[in-house]
Amino acid sequence: MAYGVAPGGMDMRFGPRWGLACAALLLIAGCAQNMGATAPQKVTAAAPARAAADLVPLATLAPGVRQDMRYASSHNFMGRPVAGYEAGVCWLSRAAAQSLAEVQQELAGDGLALKVYDCYRPQTAVNDFVRWGRDLADQKNKDMYYPRVPKNELFKRGYIAEKSGHSRGSTVDMTLVAVDAERASKRVRGPLADGVEVDMGTPFDLFDEQSHTDNPQQSPDVQHNRRWLRALMQRHGWKNLPEEWWHYTQVGEPYPEQYFDMPVKKN
Question: Would you tell me how many other CB atoms lie within 10 Å of the CB of residue 172?
């Protein structure tokens, strides 16, 4: 209880009548406080069990979306599988997965497909990123992923953080793949081949200003492709992170303040 005095905590030197009066006053104050709290309490976090039930494998709703789950492999800036990824499977909130299914349906008519690199990311994985970021001796993949950024500045520049929107279940890292290059050429630009990713100018997870969606140093074809993807996703209710052309979060995501930590599994 937040009100009153714990049993046995009353100073009985003032006698039983005074004690009863104090107890009555405290009871009245407590009731008044409760009566005044008429506004509903803001819910800041979803119940983990409910969210766990709501996360679904993307393939069940959008089998046409390609998956290249980098953090379940060694093909990432750490050079090894990341803690929390027990399988290379994209999991998302049901709302996000359904929305991507609609995006994929639209793309199919244009000879294109989505490819996702990361989806739901457990907090355990984020913690692994943080440990790696603080280990300044481990720079084996610097040339590939952060050639122009000192590792001791990755936190300051926002490339590594202790929380990630991915842990809320409605953020994805993605690109486009040409399924039918001839049809795709009517929507996106640059060299196209069936089954090959569309040119976005930089690889996924390059920690560099070149990865900023509107970086003016990119070629006209790349700028067009990034903006075309962004416009597509905006039509379906997604917002791009300006510092990463591949990073999208669903507007109105169902768990905006909850960071989950269930491991990524096959099912």
Answer: 27
- Token pair of 9, please? 């905590």
Beta strand pairing call for 112-118 and 66-67:
parallel
Backbone angles phi, psi at 259, to 5 degrees: -115, 115
Longest dimension (CA), the chain: 94
44: which 2 tokens?
A: 């800041």
Instruction: Give the tens place of pLDDT for each residue, 230-265.
Output: 999 999 999 999 999 999 999 999 999 999 999 999
Give the integer Cα–Cα distance in Å for 203 and 141: 13
Does this model's pTM top 0.70? My answer is yes
* CB count in 10 Å sphere of residue 174: 25
| Interstrand relation of 112-118 and 171-178 (parallel, antiparallel or unpaired) | antiparallel
CB-neighbour burial class of residue 85 (10 A; exposed 0-12, middle 13-18, buried 19+): buried
Structure confidence by residue, pLDDT tens digits, 166-208: 999 999 999 999 999 999 999 999 999 999 999 999 999 999 9
Q: Is 182 a catalytic residue?
A: no
Q: Beta strand 171-178 with 247-250: parallel, antiparallel or unpaired?
A: antiparallel
Active-site residue (options: 182, 243, 244, 253):
244
Give the strand pairing for 91-93 and 171-178: unpaired
What is the per-residue DSSP string for 184-243? Answer: HTTTS-S---TT-B---SS-TT--SGGGSTT-TTS-HHHHHHHHHHHHHHHHTTEEE-TT
Q: 3-state DSSP call for residue 124?
A: helix
- Return d(Cα 115, Cα 119) in angstroms, integer: 11
Asked if 116 and 172 touch (Cβ cutoff 8 Å), the reply is yes
- Taking the CA atoms of the chain, what radius of gyration do you get in angstroms? 25
